[in-house]
Amino acid sequence: MTTTLSKRQLAAQRLDETITHLWSRYAEEPSNKEIRNRLAEHYTPLVQHITRKLIPSFGLRDRQSAIGDALLLLVMQIIPHYDRQSDFRAWATHCLRTKMAERKRLEDLHNVHFARNMGAEEDWPGIETMLVRPQEPGSEGRFAELMAALPARDGAVLWLRYCRHLRLDEIAAAFDVGKTVICKQIRRSIAVLKKLCDPPEDRKSAKPRKAPRRDES
Predict the structure, then answer these.
(1) Cβ burial 47-84 (10 Å sphere, 16+ → b, else e)
(2) For residue range 78-116, what is the model confidence (pLDDT) as tens digits?
(3) What predicted TM-score, i.e. pTM, was given to this entire model?
(4) Is residue 15 domain-shared with residue 97, that is, in the same domain?
(5) Which of 23, 117, 119, 124 is the most exposed place for a label (fewest CB within 10 A)?
(6) Residue 206 placed within a domain
(7) What's the domain range around 59?
(8) Cα 48–53–59 angle (5° rounding)?
(9) Would you place residue 57 in the very low, low, confident or very high pLDDT band (cuts 50, 70, 90)?
């Protein structure tokens, strides 16, 4: 047991010496990417651990993306701007907190934008009543005609959403885009269909009739 512990201690000591040597070389050659990458490889587990602990406190949804951002930050900011005077863990935590606060702010803005786009779906039931469920003959041909007025992709999105009843995230995954893109397509398509479904303004287009002249005789 004593031999095993001493080997571990020796290995840790050698690692510390190696890291100290790498920091010294990096201070002399800050543009040396090979040294930077070796340091990043060493500190990656620590940064991943800190990130996983911070994610719940910021309420971030995409954990994998947040971890990816953290590892990129390790290479681009944490290591290059470390002054070697403070504790590295404390410095990394400070940088990650700042990054996650900014990411949370962007996620909140995205949610507001997403909610606004979602409001367009409230118009669909009325359009569906006019297009899909009218009683007059020839309604199916009219529906096909109106859908043909849309780009093929927009028509496919509407079909998946309202005929197949897929969730927005499922449609987004099918087209390999974000949910916001799908919302914009739905909003644009519904706006087009609303214009096509509006009844013609006969009254505005028709010329006003002149009142008949009275026979003065």
Answers:
(1) beebbeebbeeeebeeeeebbebbbebbbeebbeebee
(2) 999 998 888 999 999 999 999 888 888 877 765 555 455
(3) 0.49
(4) yes
(5) 119
(6) no
(7) 2-109
(8) 115
(9) confident
Q: Are 155 and 147 spatial neighbours (Cβ–Cβ below 8 Å)?
A: yes
Q: Are 92 and 74 in contact (CB under 8 A)?
A: yes
Q: Where are the alpha helices (DSSP H) in 59-200?
A: 63-73, 88-118, 124-131, 139-148, 152-158, 168-175, 179-197
DSSP-derived letter for residue 201 is -
| Reduced 3-state DSSP string for 11-40 | HHHHHHHHHHHHHHHHHHCCCCHHHHHHHH
Name residue 35's amino acid: I
Structure-block tokens of residue 79? 């290591």
Band (pLDDT 50/70/90 cuts) for residue 12 is confident
Domain count, the chain: 2
Separation between Cα atoms, residue 57 and residue 80, nearest integer Å: 27
Is the pLDDT at 134 greater than 80? The verdict is no
Measured distance CA(35)–CA(22) in Å, rounded = 6
Cα–Cα distances in angstroms (integers) from residue 31 to residues 17, 76, 85, 140, in the given order: 22, 12, 20, 67
Token representation of residue 120: 């367009």
